[in-house]
Amino acid sequence: MEDLEIVCPVCGEASLVLAEDLEDLEVGDVLECEACGAFLEVVSLDPLEVEVTEEGLEGFFVDCPRCGYTFELSEEDQGREVECPECGFRFVPDWSDLEEDEEW
């Protein structure tokens, strides 16, 4: 079995699942996205498919326009300038992608 790359449905970042971890993986197991921390439940092994669990949907994730680092914002950050924890770049995120019916 080879290493496998999965793409997080929350942030779109790819994570590598090592071959030795794939052997022990079972439907119902939960993986954590390395980039954004979302929790991804394994729903199929062949092919490997994951879906976001409730815990992964609680925040708004943004990519830093300078370095591309993905990080989570809180509701209090809406409309404010934020600082990327990776490179220190300051910017005002675009919240227009947030659906009107999403609850905080």
UniProtKB/TrEMBL annotation:
Q: Which residues form a coiled coil?
A: none
The record's listing under InterPro entries reads:
DPH_MB_dom, LysW
| Lineage: superkingdom | Bacteria
- Record domain DPH-type MB: where: 39-87
Q: Which Pfam families match?
A: Zn_ribbon_LysW
Task: Fetch the Gene3D superfamilies from UniProt.
Answer: 2.20.28.160, RNA polymerase ii, chain L
Q: What is this protein called?
A: DPH-type MB domain-containing protein
Q: Which organism is it from?
A: Thermus thermophilus (strain ATCC 27634 / DSM 579 / HB8)
What does UniProt list as this organism's lineage?
A: Bacteria, Thermotogati, Deinococcota, Deinococci, Thermales
